[in-house]
Amino acid sequence: MNEIEMAKVRKAEQAAQDARNGGGTGRRKGLSVFRLKVVGAVFMALSVASATLVPLIFGAPTADNMTALTVAVVCEIASWCAVPIYAWLLFDGWRHTRNRWRYGSRLFVAACLAGLPYDRIMTGHWFDAHTHNPLWGLVFAYIVLVAVDWIGARYAQAGALRWALTVLVIVAGVLWNLLLRIGVSQQVMYSGVITLAFVMVFYFLHRHENTMMFTAGLLGAVSCITPGIGVAFLHYRNDRLGYAHPWTKWVFYALYPAMLLLGALLV
């Protein structure tokens, strides 16, 4: 690559970064990455509140206490709207990050930090190998995403082999989520599996916006309905970062573990 070509590449990269930070000619209205993360955080907070604050305020959610049971169930079901939002943020972060290994390691650390307080809230013990927090669903989805993309690049000319390996990796990701019970909620929402499904939809269809959103909406509708509402938020995204400060992104990595820790101290 000569100097002129290198200059063009650097200019294109800078233009893309400027567009994500608020410049360029893309849509100015809508939800930036920052705003999507805020929306997702609110839904995550509802999930934590359903198992911690609701019992403190309304009492134990049992059949004899329908008020507490109703509020807890509504909060938990509403929290499932976050699944497609975080699946999109994972995919979007993957395709824009400068260091994919570092990006994956941050997800891994966040999932580890969320583990103990999540187990405490869900099982009453600080460690329970029978359940794992939803952030592990993002970790496994990221591993599958990286593997599928590598297979697509490595075996681009070997159609049948490429798709056979791709299906094998995706099935392995589904089994990991099922066997480890990643983000299982109310025995009906398998958020780890659904997160992986959304990430694959975004990966394979991101060049076709309307088809991608329709497919994601359909997937959300058949996944206990409320994830479909989360897809509606994505429809209004503008793909800009929207951060007021560079360090803001680090807050969101710590936010869910911090929510869980606070909830664990309340139960």
Automatic annotation (TrEMBL):
Keyword set includes Transmembrane: yes
Q: Give the protein name, as stated in the record.
A: Conjugal transfer protein TraX
Keyword check for Transmembrane helix = yes
* Annotated signal peptide: none
Instruction: Tell me the superkingdom of the source.
Output: Bacteria
Where would you find the membrane-spanning parts of this chain? 38-60, 66-91, 103-121, 133-151, 163-182, 188-205, 212-235, 247-266
* Keywords, alphabetical: Membrane, Transmembrane, Transmembrane helix
